[in-house]
Amino acid sequence: MFNFSKISMTASMLSIVAVGLLCSGFFAVVGYGLFFKGSREEKAFGLINASGYNIGCFTMPFVQSFLGATGVAATSLFDAGNAMVCTGGSYAIAVSVSGKGTAKGPGQVVRQLFMSVPFDCYVIMTTLALLKIRLPGFCIQLAETIGNANSFLSLFMIGIGLEIHMSKEQAVSVCKIIGTRFMLSIVLALFFYWYAPFGEEIRRTLAILMFAPVSSLGVPYTSMIDGDVNLASDVNSISILVGIVGLILAILIF
């Protein structure tokens, strides 16, 4: 809320939402392809656990610390598109692929999407910014005060949840997902930084976001399709470690 109040939102910036949707969806397809020769359960696992970006609980503290208000707003718009995949879209497709879990129609996916508080905030603040409507000063000050605690709380929760236990077979699957995702992220980061039709600050932000970890929702969604929850947890934990290194290097390079 505070960062949206400091920028001038344009209709062209809404295309960043599409970028988030396409990037998250792209990695869902990649995850499916990595296990194309495997069972239906493995394909569904790859689809869920290779897609999405952990923005709110991991990447946003980095963005708030090193990028300006425009970078934070661009990150929020990117996450709005990303949320369409990682808060229900990938799971709905995985259910169809695996034949397990609770089937979800388009209406249920949309309903779950709007049950996400961060997504609702993105929609509301983007709409207000486009309409040039400014919130009262005390609302912005309150949001800024609350937002200042985001970095500590997010990294604190990551530290609590970080746990790695895996067999050799699981290590191969983890390396397959994380290694492929990291290499493709480098390609996407270079593409966005050099060729994306945005200003330098937004291009830099998009390049940095490519190194965000996979969505933390992969673990509960894997459980809901009776998948390998321990493996999903390992993918998420290793992704966080790689994400820390990747984001720091990206901030220093771009």
Q: How much helical structure, as a percent, in the residues? A: over 70%
Distance N terminus to C terminus?
26 Å
Reported by name, the CATH topology is: Na+/H+ antiporter like fold
Structurally, the number of domains stands at 1
- Give me the Rg, rounded: 18 Å
Number of strands: 0
DSSP strand content: under 5%
Q: Features of this protein?
A:
254 residues; mainly alpha; Na+/H+ antiporter like fold; 12 helices; 0% strand; globular
Task: Describe this structure as you would to a colleague.
With 254 residues, this protein is mostly helical. The protein has one domain: Na+/H+ antiporter like fold (Up-down Bundle). Helix content is 74%, strand content 0%. The chain is built from twelve helices and no strands. It has helices at residues 15-34, 40-49, 55-66, 69-98, 106-114, 117-130, 137-147, 150-161, 168-195, 200-209, 218-224, 229-253. The radius of gyration is 18 Å and the shape is globular. The two termini are 26 Å apart.
